[in-house]
Design brief:
The structure holds two protein chains of two kinds.
Chain A (H helix, E strand, L loop, with lengths): L1 H31 L6 H18 L9 H27 L7 H23 L4 E2 L8 E3 L5 E3 H23 L1 H11 L1 H6 L4 H26 L2 E2 L5 H14 L4 H21 L5 H15 L14
Antiparallel strand pairs in A: 1-4, 2-3
Helix pairs in contact in A: 1-5, 1-8, 1-9, 1-10, 2-3, 2-4, 2-8, 2-9, 3-8, 5-6, 5-8, 6-8, 9-10, 9-11, 10-11
Chain B lengths: L1 H24 L2 H26 L7 H23 L7 H27 L7 H20 L19 H20 L1 H11 L1 H6 L4 H24 L11 H14 L4 H17 L7 H15 L12 H6 L15
Helix pairs in contact in B: 1-6, 2-6, 2-9, 2-10, 2-11, 3-4, 3-5, 3-9, 4-9, 6-7, 6-9, 7-9, 10-11
The chains are: A mainly alpha, B mainly alpha.
């Protein structure tokens, strides 16, 4: 029983990371119908920006300070928001009116470009993320032990998700985003600046991916330029699992993925870790083709 | 019919002759690039049947290739010596057994294609895509856990019998089958599904059956390509990650969706391009990905669009235009 709760706790912490990345996928997909393959690599850039910011600020020395950690997190999010906007402007905007496959291949190209630039600039060897917060073990009761890093991951993700939900449902810009996602041309006719809304969407999604990157650096501190590929794919699967285009769906999908991975590692075998996500995905989609929270859109004839 | 058979025999004979000539004279590095190009042509052509011609979207093609590669390799290593009476078959018998191994690899992949094609009854577009991606990954992880085929160590001890002639024969066979299919009644049904699935269904085309069939045929050729691959070089599941599937998609889209000659062009170009960029060693992958983005912006429909490259049209430009055949009504 204790073992089960331990795996659940680990799974929720890891699933929060997937959820943060999945949010970016689901937002971009909702608005552009584009699978932004480069999203996982933005997460990688976020981790590296935080690495260099922390080193520049002298963090990770003898006295880790939470204030510094916040500065590092915010600077990585800001840098990636900018990167997301640049990518959207130079790569995705020119192909927006082309077929969706063209846009997809462009996204793959951007993903490869970021990976290879990462190898060139950061080096292919793994870097060790500095300790921003001193590690401490916390007993949740019943012998379930988590680190304060895992708690930080869950809390920060929760805060960001709540903030995003409030932004999308309560502000004018959020309303405009939903309008563009619902029908881009109609939104444009209603006077919504579609281009600006798309740019904002990319900025927010990329900032969330960067936050995920920093949080990953906190819990497992080995970062390298290809670290974004697998989490990127799995976060996309999480978004589809929850119902793509739906923000709570992305969170649920991420948590389901994280928990199921840890259960498989704990009870079956770690070699099946990469397959379980897809098995769950296929089962869910066969029963509910639009994902857990996805709405079934009636077929237009 | 007789003429066609003769033509086919001549093509295969020519390919074997070419192989003989090249093996002696060509440096092994270029020979290897040619073989890998041929395999990629098979993969791109077969994927085009699903993505370009039927208008579905599969991103798990490497999974079919893996099934073909491992099944055929297992047959060659475990099955063939037993059937041939103890020793590994050689000579003409060896070639026959290799052909059988390719067929078995293709058939196993076709079965996998059937299973992957089934969800297309319920799923459309990106959802189908992500399921094919999932199947590809599941297949890879499953193979990784089978000890008899080497598991995480890779499958060693497979006789390396694949030559350029085998690969080119495979590529030609893939091309001819898919081209003939495209021009047949069934091919037009597939194209109708691509253009408008609901309209096709309204016209009485059994869309599910055609979509699953497209998956099966496509998977067969991907499996055959996998069989040729496993008898050519070191076999490990790392060759079949989803990056391989992505690579094949890029070839198809770059050449032009729905254009068979485009797929051949795209596959050859993308196999050769990273090699041609070797002079820039460290930066070649950066240049490669930047070129990919630029090409998609400049020519979103791919190099050939959905047209076919044809000699007749190339030379037709220099002839006086043929008189208009009949009125086509309002333009």
């Amino acid at each position: 029983m204790q073992e089960l709760f331990q795996q659940l706790a680990n799974g929720i912490a890891w699933g929060s990371i997937y959820a943060l990345i999945a949010l970016g996928y689901t937002m971009v997909y909702g608005i552009l119908r584009l699978i932004n393959f480069a999203h996982g690599d933005i997460y990688m850039v976020g981790a590296f920006t935080a690495y260099f910011a922390a080193r520049a600020l002298g963090a990770g020395g003898a006295s880790p300070s939470p204030g510094l950690a916040v500065i590092v997190l915010v600077s990585a999010m800001a840098a990636c928001a900018l990167l997301g906007m640049v990518i959207e402007f130079f790569a995705y905007r020119p192909v927006r009116r082309s077929s969706r496959l063209t846009a997809l291949i462009t996204a793959i190209g951007v993903s490869l470009l970021l990976e290879n630039l990462g190898i060139r600039i950061f080096g292919a060897d793994p870097k060790f993320f500095p300790q921003l917060v001193a590690p401490r073990r916390v007993d949740l009761g019943g012998g379930v032990m988590v680190t304060n890093h895992q708690i930080t991951v869950v809390v920060v993700s929760l805060v960001l998700m709540v903030a995003l939900t409030l932004f999308v449902t309560r502000t004018r810009t959020g309303k405009a985003m939903r309008a563009v996602a619902f029908h881009r041309d109609a939104a444009s006719l209603m006077g919504i600046p579609v281009n600006r809304i798309i740019t904002i969407t990319f900025a927010i999604g990329s900032a969330l991916a960067a936050a995920a990157g920093v949080l990953v650096g906190l819990t497992n501190p080995k970062i390298e330029p290809l670290m974004g590929i697998m989490p990127g794919v799995k976060a996309f699967v999480a978004a589809v699992l929850g119902g793509i285009g739906s923000i709570p769906g992305a969170v649920i999908g991420g948590l389901v993925m994280g928990v199921s991975e840890y259960l498989v590692v704990g009870y079956v075998s770690s070699t099946f870790r990469d397959a379980i996500a897809f098995v769950i995905l296929i089962l869910v989609l066969l029963i509910k083709p639009a994902g857990i929270l996805g709405r079934n859109v009636a077929e237009k004839v | 019919m007789a003429r066609r058979l003769l033509f086919g025999a001549a093509a295969i004979g020519g390919v074997w002759l070419l192989d003989r000539l090249l093996t002696g004279s060509l440096n092994p590095y270029f020979y290897r690039i040619l073989v890998l190009s041929g395999l990629n042509v098979m993969l791109a052509l077969s994927l085009n049947l699903i993505n370009g011609i039927t208008g579905q979207f599969s991103i798990g093609h490497a999974g079919f290739m893996a099934v073909g590669a491992y099944t055929s390799a297992a047959f060659t290593v475990y099955g063939a010596p037993r059937l041939a009476g103890g020793a590994a078959p050689e000579g003409i018998a060896g070639a026959a057994f290799f052909l059988l191994a390719i067929a078995i690899g293709g058939a196993a992949a076709a079965l996998a294609g059937f299973l992957v094609g089934l969800p297309s009854m319920r799923l459309r577009g990106d959802y189908l895509a992500i399921v094919t991606l999932g199947f590809g990954e599941i297949i890879r992880v499953a193979i990784l856990n089978i000890e008899a085929v080497g598991g995480a160590r890779g499958f060693a001890g497979i006789p390396q019998v694949t030559t350029l002639a085998w690969v080119l024969t495979g590529a030609i066979a893939t091309f001819v089958v898919i081209r003939n299919l495209m021009r047949s009644y069934h091919g037009r049904a597939l194209l109708a599904i691509r253009e408008d699935e609901i309209a096709a269904e309204a016209l009485g085309i059994p869309t599910t059956r055609y979509k699953v069939t497209a998956f099966v045929i496509s998977a067969f050729f991907a499996g055959a390509a996998g069989a040729l691959f496993s008898h050519y070089t070191y076999l490990h599941t790392n060759s079949f990650t989803f990056m391989k599937s992505i690579e094949v998609i890029v070839m198809v889209v770059l050449g032009g969706m729905g254009s068979l000659t485009g797929s051949i062009l795209g596959a050859t170009l993308l196999t050769a391009l990273p090699e041609a960029l070797r002079f820039a060693s460290a930066d070649r992958l950066i240049i490669y990905s930047a070129l990919l983005i630029l090409l998609m912006i400049a020519r979103p429909q791919g190099i050939l669009g959905n047209r076919e490259f044809s000699m007749a049209r190339m030379f037709g430009r220099f002839r006086p235009p043929a008189p208009e055949a009949g009125g086509t009504g309002a333009k």
